[in-house]
Design brief:
By secondary structure, this protein is an all-beta fold. Helices cover 0% and strands 59% of the residues. The protein has no helices and six strands. Strands 1-2-3-6-5-4 form a six-stranded antiparallel beta barrel.
Length: 94
Amino acid sequence: MTPMEFDPIDDRRSEKRSPYFGLVEISFEDPTPVIIQAELIEVSGRGFRASHHEKALAPGLQVDFKSAKSSGRACVIWTHVLEGRCNSGFLVLP
């Protein structure tokens, strides 16, 4: 297997993820309101992953989100920056 191949047996995530395409609005106070338009990449029962240009979405930050099918509060779990584009994983809060 080459480094670029993905082996689904090695996937340790406990929850199934489904690809999802659409927009999500993410907002938070920093100390003034910040509103980000992001693109959903995938969703699961407890969270989602989105692509955006905002480097201020750091792990631990709590945000509000709104998409065509869902809204609520979430916590940023991780953010990766590659070539100026950011991908972040979010855990939806109860």
